[in-house]
Amino acid sequence: MKTIYLDNASTTPLDNGVLEAMLPYLKENYGNPSSQHSAGRVASEGVLRSRDKIANLLGCKPDEVFFVSGGTEAGNWALKGACSAAAGRGKHIIVSAIEHPALIESAKDMQKFGYEVSFIGSDGSGRINPADVENAIRADTVFCAVMHANNETGVIQPVEEIGGICKKLGVFYYCDCVQTAGVLPLPVNSCDALGISSHKFYGPKGFGALYIRDGAEISRLISGGKQERGLRGGTVNAASAVGCAVALENAFRGMDENNERISKLRDNFVKKVLSEIEGSHLIGSGDRLPSNANISFDGCNGENILFVLDLNGIAVSTGSACSAGASSVSHVLTAMGLSFDRVKSAVRFTFGKYNTEEEVEIVVSALKKAVAKLRENGRVC
Fold first, then answer.
1. In the beta sheet, which residues pair with residue 211?
2. Beta carbons within 10 angstroms of residue 197's beta carbon
3. What is the mean pLDDT of each run of 10 residues along the chain (381 residues)?
4. Count of C-beta atoms within a 10 Å radius of residue 199
5. Which of 107, 160, 204, 211 has the most CB atoms around it within 10 Å of its CB?
């Protein structure tokens, strides 16, 4: 049975063209990019071309692009590196309460070293109010993180305005762009650093990039050799660098077309679910990513819906894959002020470029049956 995959916010399949571009660096051009011999130089040239390509797509300089293992490392490096570089100037951090666990947990790590953290909640639409960020900034604030678009609700945040506030008040601003790379123009000019992860745009897993504005004060997170201009030790994954660059280029090239097609699929799905399943509610409002639909179902447990759909060959989620298995409910939906029942009954459906209208019909039909069955059996807890 072929899986109908509606969990593209968690990860996307590797494009065949991306794999083909990577293969030579996994087989023939396998040299260490830091080695001085010809095999190393060939790999190094692949890394350099990829860095140039990614910088061009982001709208920055190549020496402002640092390769990392993904969005989690990018967020950790930005937060901990900025705090380390600002040692002695302040120990106050601002993080939105709807951030990815990479930022939430990094901030909590810093509390062990005497840092104070202000977690900024969102309104009922899932949006962070820039005024709340500005009001939270103090003389000793050294770091602020508000993501470009939320991974659970898809709600797009006012990052340009927030970035302007942080710049005006001298606060290092990090923008998590993991969900928006290849979907929206990225706010390079509004932040000191931003992170992307290639497996969100049909590239390889375990690889991403951190943009660091030239002149921004940040210390390294991973000590080691002189790779990444001495700021990130460890052998560079040449094959994944090539794959990331090709995947991002493809995503930017097909951005408008993909967004239009995916949003139509999503909108049709939402319309059918809300009209055909009584007691269903779309979570979040305003501008959101074209792929995302987070819907709650009265009288149900979201995890039970997930399991029933999975048995029918349909993959969805109840939130961030990085939070899966956690005993607590979604911190994102809780920060929006939603009731426990609404949070517990939420399911996230995220569409990708390979989904079809036929799949929408199949999923809606299966979802109607799943919700009816669970309500009949009283499977709420």
1. 65, 194
2. 28
3. 94 98 96 94 97 98 98 98 95 98 97 97 97 98 98 98 98 98 97 98 98 97 93 96 98 97 98 98 96 97 97 89 60 95 97 98 98 83 45
4. 23
5. 211
Q: What is the DSSP letter of 194?
A: E
Residues comprising the chain, all counted: 381
Nearest Cα to 368, choosing from 293, 314, 284, 305?
Answer: 305
Active site residue 144: no
Contact 55, 66 (CB under 8 A): no
- The type of residue at 376 is E
Please report, as a single letter, which amino acid is at residue 351. Answer: F
Amino acid at 267: D
d(CA 36, CA 42): 10
DSSP-based three-state secondary structure for 240: helix
Q: In the predicted model, what is the mean pLDDT of the chain?
A: 95
State how far the Cα of 85 lies from the Cα of 49, in Å rounded to an integer. Answer: 30
What DSSP character marks residue 232? B
Residue among 136, 156, 153 nearest 336 (CA): 153
E strands, 243-291, in order: 280-282
CA atoms within 13 A on the CB side of 48: 8
Indicate if the alpha-carbon torsion angle 143, 148, 154, 157 is positive or negative. positive
**Full-prediction pTM beyond 0.90?**
yes
